[in-house]
Each structure stands twice: as structure tokens, then as C-alpha cells.
Amino acid sequence: MKLNVLDVTLRDGSHSVRHSFTVEQVRAAAKGLNASGVPYFEVSHGDGLGGSSLQYGLSKTDELKLIEAAVSECTTSQVSVLLLPGIGTKEDLQSAASLGVKMARIATHVTEADIGAQHIELARSLGLKTVGFLMMSHMAPVEKIVEQAKLFESYGAEIVYVTDSAGAMLPKDVTERISALRQALQCEIGFHAHNNLSMALANTIAAIKAGATYVDGSMRALGAGAGNTQTEVMAAVLERLGYETGIDLYNLIDTANDVIAPLMQQPQEITGSSLILGYAGVYSSFLLHAQNAAEQFGIDERDILMKVGEMKAVGGQEDLIYEVAQNLASKREVVP
Ligand SMILES: C[C@H](O)CC(=O)C(=O)O
Ligand SMILES: [Mn+2]
Predict the structure, then answer these.
(1) Which of 25, 252, 254, 275 has the highest CB neighbour count under 10 A?
(2) Within this chain, do residues 171 and 304 fall inside the same structural domain, yes or no?
(3) pLDDT of residue 333
(4) Is residue 215 within a helix (H) or strand (E), and if so which, with residue range?
């Protein structure tokens, strides 16, 4: 059976390197991904097109320059962009499409698919392969996910993703969600994992067994929180399981070793704090913000993440992290 691997190193990995990718780094990674036969890979700010801002982190290099460099290296791979309505605009999507991007993934919180309608319609009208990406999917019961995925499909999405943004799911959670979507939808289904509970590859396999045909990964697992399913490991395991990915494993390992490993700012490991992301169900890209806030207010970053998890904060509420840290600090001061 044929599976479509989508590498997110040059987008989700952007969180992990504080949005510091350069044209040279992107060009080298894109060249390697293309030579390895990875069918799709994503390039944009970690929070999608238009994400460069004080709220989400400023990009070192304009993402359109990164996208242009990536597209220029592709002979067979196709470049995807992520767009969160409210962060990225229709104009951002049009600019990316004019550079030769072939896929758009429109991402909303799992209960807010309706805010993606216009962007999905635009992506289709631009001739892009169009994906609806349901973030923080662990927060909604199966029926809600089915309802929201059907909305995406009705707007024209050709693939709907279950996205474990917090790395909080266990294989049974993935199986339940993907199986229900497989029964309810006509379109293809994808899965995007984070490794905060060390479940990323197991969850990805559960998703495939339940009917997902698109699966995400990142080289060296470079991504928000504890990172994603590691693309080169996934390629090897999928081949061993008898799936066809069309990926040249040695070429991909070389790209991970020679291009990605040298640019990593810290090892992509499950630290105490990234474990708490998964345990408390917190958006993975909150990790570096929590670290900044912890340092600023002298608070344990795990306490901030636990509180943010209790509050069921969702993507876009990064400023809440600083409020929580400030609150914890003020309480600590009054306790003798
Ligand atoms: C904007 C987020 O980083 C998208 C994503 O990769 C996720 O929710 O996971
Ligand atoms: Mn992610």
C-alpha cells in the first residue's frame, strides 16, 4: 500500500530553532528531501504563513524567500505551506502559490473548522492540493471531530488531518478518531504527531492502520515540543511494515545528518517540560514561550505549563503564558 509522507522540518522545526532558518539551510534541506523522493514537504514560519511577529516569534528570513529557495530545488517533491486563518491572510496564500507551492494546509483549532472555509475555497481555486488541519485534536470527542472534519470536506478539503499538537494522544485515541473519520468521510485522511509522550511513531502507525494515507514527520524529529515523528525512522519502519513510500532511506539519513543536525540549537529530546506538554495536553509550540516566561518571572516552567493545560489554552493564546507566570510569581511573593 502506498503512503504519502510529508516532511515538516522546515515548518514545525522552525519553532525549535526560534524561526532562524536561512535561505542556504532551506535550500540544502530541500535539495536533500527532493533527492530522497519525499513527496511533500512544508516550508513557512512555525505558526504558518504570516506568523512572523512579536506574538509568535520574528523570522530571521522572510518566509517567501525560504519558500522560493525550496521550490527552486524541487524536481519531484512538492512544497506545502501551512496557514492559520487569523494569522496568515488570503494574500499570503496567493503570494506562496505564485512562487510554485503545490499544497496548502489550512489549520484551525479542532472545534473551529468554520473559520477555514474561505481559505480552503481560495486554495482550491488556486489549484493547490488542499488540506484541512484540525489542531489540538485530543481536546475534542470523536463525534465533534467527525462534525468538524465533515465541514472541512464540505468546503473542498481533499485531505483532513487529525493533528496531535500537544503530543497528548495514545494509540487508542488515534485509532478511535481516524477510524471514525474513515467511516464518515470520502476524502483522504492524514495524521500529524508530536513526541512529547514518546508516542509519535506508535501513534503514526495506529493512524495508518486505521486508514490514514498522509503522515507527517520531521528530520531528526525537529519540531515544537519534543518534536515530531522522525521522518527517516518512520521511512525505515514503514518499509519494514511493507508500505511503499518511494523514499530513498540513505539519502534521507544523509540529509538529516549533514544538513539538519548541524543547525539544531539543542538536542530534540523529551525534556521534563516537553513531557509535561503531553501530560497536561498543552500546545507544543508553547514550550519556548513558557521557557522565556519562566526565566522572566523566576517560575518553574512545568508549573506554568500545568496551569495553562488546566485552563485549556489553545493556539493563539501565547500571551496567556506570560499572564500565568506573572500570576504564579505574585502568589509566590505573598506566601511567607
Ligand atoms: C501552528 C502549529 O505549530 C501547527 C502544528 O504543527 C500543530 O498544531 O502541531
Ligand atoms: Mn506540529
Answers:
(1) 252
(2) no
(3) 64
(4) strand 214-217
In short, whether 71's Cβ falls inside 6 Å of ligand 1 is no
- What domain range includes position 312? 272-334
Which residues are part of a known binding site? 11-12, 165, 192, 194, 283
Cα–Cα distances (Å) from 39 to 74, 173, 190, 213, 247, in that order, read 10, 27, 14, 13, 8
pTM: 0.97
Residue with grid cell 500545568, as numbered in its chain: 306
Catalytic residue among 15, 45, 119, 289: 15
Nearest ligand atom owner, CA of 137: 1
- 95-147 pLDDT, tens digit per residue, is 999 999 999 999 999 999 999 999 999 999 999 999 999 999 999 999 999 99
Burial pattern 32-43, b for ≥16 Cβ within 10 A else e, equals: bbbbbbbbbbbb
Bridge partners for 41 per DSSP:
7, 79
List the beta strands (DSSP E) in 61-146. 78-83, 103-109, 129-135
For a substitution probing ligand 1, which of 284, 287, 289 has the most ligand atoms within 8 Å of its CB?
284
Asked if 135 contacts 165 with a C-beta cutoff of 8 angstroms, the reply is yes
- Please tell me the total count of domains within the chain: 2
In this structure, the answer to whether residues 96 and 203 fall within a common structural domain is yes
